[in-house]
Design a protein that fits this description.
Elements lengths: L37 E3 L8 E4 L5 H7 L1 H12 L4 E7 L5 E4 L4 E2 L6 H13 L6 H13 L3 H11 L2 H9 L8 H6 L7 E2 H15 L4 H12 L4 H5 L5 E9 L10 E10 L2 E9 L5 H12 L7
Helix pairs in contact: 2-11, 3-4, 3-6, 3-8, 3-9, 4-5, 4-9
């Protein structure tokens, strides 16, 4: 059954690529594609388009990926970088482009962080749901930095780092694991962000009180290039992030959006990370060409 807009009714969760219900994230290799992946190269592209799971021939894939390739070429031709992952949560097929390049996530990291808090701390009674809710709502809906900072102060970062490991997004004990456990905005790749959202889809589909509350918050978020760039009838649960410039420290120019798209009976994780300086409209213009690639995953 589809996830009803505004009702909090949740999909029964299909298996996310590389996961199982018993062991979230099990089966993921942290980098790269499987040996069976199809690789599409194109003139003017900075990366190969890597497809896993489709039945189409390579020639047919290349034709169907024309709009995606045009969007990437136009974007990168202006001197910007982009990393994309699209996971079909029903078929298990996926598309990756520049998926292992690291980007500054800006506020796009708030989505996974808040989900991790609900799953590991609110639902388990470690922290008060009311206390978290007061901070999570502005952090997600209006991307309030003060609320996000206060939520980090309340709940810490160690549980988030461990949750990212459970999602298959971070290697335990690695340098990046340490960053997740200590930094509010750890740099990461589109592949890593997609794995967190793939796990999040399974959690949001369970129908707990916390999951239903989160669905409502993500529906209400004020800014989303993905929402602006796809059909208005689709349900999109996403969290965007943007930052205007490299500051010589931890922050860098970034415009990103990531989350879940429910397109009729199909569910996708879509992640788009770029180093564009805080330009949500520009990213929204990129979304239709990016999202058109879902046709090869069906």
């Amino acid at each position: 059954m589809p996830l009803a807009r505004g009702m909090g009714a949740l999909l029964p969760h299909p298996q996310s690529p590389g996961t199982s219900a018993e062991a979230p994230g099990a089966g993921y290799a942290l980098e790269g594609a499987s040996p069976e992946a199809l690789v599409i190269s194109g003139d003017g592209l900075d990366h190969d388009i890597v497809i896993e799971g489709p039945a189409d021939s390579t020639d047919e894939l290349a034709r169907e990926l024309g709009p995606f390739e045009d969007a990437a070429v136009a974007w990168e031709g202006s001197g910007l970088r982009v990393g994309v992952v699209i996971d079909d949560l029903g078929s298990g097929a996926s598309l990756a482009y520049g998926a292992d390049e690291k980007f500054y996530p800006a506020s796009s990291i708030k989505g996974p962080y808040v989900i991790s808090v609900y799953e590991t701390m609110v639902d388990t009674g470690i922290v008060s749901g009311d206390a978290v809710r007061r901070l999570a709502e502005p952090a997600i809906v209006s991307s309030d930095n003060d609320a996000y900072r206060a939520l980090r102060d309340l709940c810490g970062s160690q549980a988030f780092a461990d949750w990212a490991v459970a999602c298959g997004a971070v290697e335990p004990g690695s340098e990046q694991y340490a960053q997740f456990a200590s930094h509010s905005y750890p740099r990461l790749s589109a592949r890593q962000l997609a794995r967190m959202w793939g796990h999040a889809f399974a959690y949001l589909s369970e129908g707990s009180d916390g999951a239903r509350e989160l669905v409502g918050l993500f529906e209400q978020r004020e800014e989303s290039p993905i929402r602006a760039g796809v059909d208005a009838s689709y349900l999109t649960l996403t969290k965007a992030g943007w930052y205007p410039e490299d500051d010589g420290g931890d922050s860098a120019a970034s415009t990103c959006d990531a989350g879940i798209i429910l397109d009729g009976s199909r569910a996708y994780v879509v992640v788009i990370m770029t180093d564009a300086p805080a330009d949500l409209d520009l990213l929204a213009d990129l979304v239709p060409g990016i999202y058109s690639a879902t046709v090869v995953l069906e």
